[in-house]
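Review box. Two proteins, two foldings.
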Amino acid sequence: MELKDKLRILADSAKYDASCSSSGSNRAFKSGIGSTAIAGICHSFASDGRCISLLKILLTNSCIFDCKYCPNRRSNDIERAMLTATELCNITINFYRRNYIEGLFLSSGIIKNPDYTMERMIEAISMLRNKYHFNGYIHAKAIPGASEELLKKLGLLVDRMSANIELPTDEGLKLLAPNKDSHKVTQIMRYVKKEHSKNFAPAGQSTQMIIGATKESDYDVMLRSSSLYDNYKLKRVFYSAYIPVNKDNTLPTLIKPPLKRENRLYQADWLLRFYGFKVEDLLNNDKPNFNLLVDPKTEWALLHLEEFPKEINKCSYYELLKIPGIGTKSARRIIASRRQFKLDFSDLSRMGVVMKRAKYFITCSDRYMINPQFINRNFIETNLILDEHLKQESNNRYNQLELFHE
């Protein structure tokens, strides 16, 4: 098979894996090519909006497993290919020299057994590092069930490792991927957490969950994510909206992937990691799913209007983070600026505060931006939903114009 055909097959087969974050590593300088310096990774975007900065490819799309949601499942009649170590190195180096990429994301179907597959991946990455002297970013997907000896070899070669949890619950995994065992995935996570250092997977580890292939609620998903962050110190949990690529009686029938739900999960994940929220602040058994019409922080604020308005010139950093429209950067700017002078609404706009959302929840020097008699859930929610609808309509018109000019 021609190398260009292998590239077409294996790059296309890798496109469903979202867990390819490319930041957080700063590999010590050596003679050679490539760099993982912060802001040294170029980003592009796929048609579905995912950020891509790496050559994302499988070593092979052949697999001994028959996971029902996977396009590369054993029972699918598709083109199969496998790269040799030399072929993978040649592709990576040539793409890098043409400035197409700044790094590599390597995963693989499982051939023969987990150890054999990991040995082939390690052979290719070791050649890239030692023969071709490539010092750029490499993210590799560890194979669940592989030995700790092989995990150690891989971790010493790459910047980030990941092992996909795949589905939010063990019940869902047994239903759709009966060959897989979540305990083997968490064993990898536990090992990477223990060994993590500037020499072993310095950019840490991540994982991915498929959303919408099974019946778990957003509450189930976020509880699992919170547990993974707490127990294994993951850098990221990636959420991948289920894309119906296979036909099976156990799979849901969807017209299109639940991308809005995926977006809400990412927003909530951000709140857990950077804004001091807990899962129970956002969801519970009585309210197990996010509102698709407004973002999770705004939904929380609407349910807790008794805590508002917040006085911008007095409230703490963590109180600022609870206000819709205020992020971590704008909160820090507010704290720093009000040491010098009292802030007004016009100052907040210049600091990056999204006033379309924040104006309902704040005062400046005890003054409201809008008439306080309108501050009730129905009024605020209606206006925020209308703003979101107009924004979406504007984006749709812009995209149509872009296509017309192309």
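Next protein.
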Amino acid sequence: MIDVYDMALAGLLHDIGKLMQRAEVDIPKSIYESRCPVYQSRISHLHVMWTEHFFKLLAEHDPWWQEIANLAASHHKPEAYANAADSEKYWLIQCLILGDRVSSMWDRAPDDEEIQRGAYKCKPLSSIFTDVCLGGKNSKKNAYRICAKSPLDDSAFPLELGTKKRLGGFIS
């Protein structure tokens, strides 16, 4: 049975596949396509395939990890995890879906829904630390550059949005 900590873990890792997808980690997609919803006759939300792959080694021999993997990878296609007849699992996946929707509304501008196919790879990843306020003035919005990481530069540190920098600066 899933408890609140298991749910938190699934919620924390449900979009881990987005990082792997952006990094173009090679996976056997045909194995995981059943997790993806279909929209306008095309499979969508492909990152869930990478999310499930992320858990593969852990879940292979451990039913607990398999349950976490199933929950996390089904957040765009809940029927892959449970239907309304299985009330406990159904409410777990509904909580994860609602949390995902609230979270995506926080960091997504209204025009993000209309971005071109594949453009997500060019969008800088926002730093969550700019939303942390410890009593002082709120920080400016920062994001990570899209560039190859190098141990000789500061590419691991976010820049203020709009900053132009050599190695993959921002367009905004």
